[in-house]
Write a structure and sequence with these properties.
This protein is 51% helix and 0% strand.
Amino acid sequence: MAEVTFASLHEKMKFLLKDHGVENFDESDLDLESVSSLHAKANALCAAHGGDPSRMANDTLAQLHPKLDFLLKGHGVDTDTARLDLSTLEAVDAKVNAIVNAHDH
């Protein structure tokens, strides 16, 4: 299994943004090795799905999960992540992969 990195997550999220028609997402001011950069992309994805991410916290990896859960639900994906440590990149990756897989079909 490949190591999960910020870069690998950003590539998957970049695919999702493009697939959702968010062509003008500007990441030039983002520190791509930061949690806030993942939140910025998750916020854009939630907004593309009709959600209001401005009301969600943006500080930790664990706080990404309500956004990812919103996206999973919007894609009709039910995934068992109960055993994951929500404060890890691996947990974020598991959910992002499930969303990407929903787009591959």
